[in-house]
Amino acid sequence: MVAVLLCAKCGSHLVDVRGWRSRAVAVLRCASCSHESPVAGFTVGRVYMCNESAAVAEAIEDAALPLAGVR
């Protein structure tokens, strides 16, 4: 199983981290409708491939994480 993050406003899968409010709170933004929302304790990683286990590993490597200076 691979998790997919969807925009609750328009249903698009084009969701990514726009920025960080703190090291634990990301601001997610939908590229389709521009809806933004803070999310605590999670991030996103994106990859495009058929092999599910390799896709999960690649998504983890691509995960958006806050910079060390963000509190």
Instruction: Report the average pLDDT across residues.
Output: 82
Proportion of residues in helical segments: 10-25%
What is the overall silhouette? flat
| Quaternary organisation | single chain
Task: Spell out the helices and strands N to C.
Answer: EEEH
Q: What value does the Rg take, in angstroms?
A: 13 Å
Question: End-to-end span in angstroms?
Answer: 33 Å
> Proportion of β residues?
15-25%
| Contiguous helical run count | 1
Q: Structural class of the secondary elements? A: alpha+beta
Number of separate strands: 3
Uncertain runs: none
Biggest pleated-sheet summary: 3 strands, antiparallel
The main sheet orders its strands as: 1-2-3
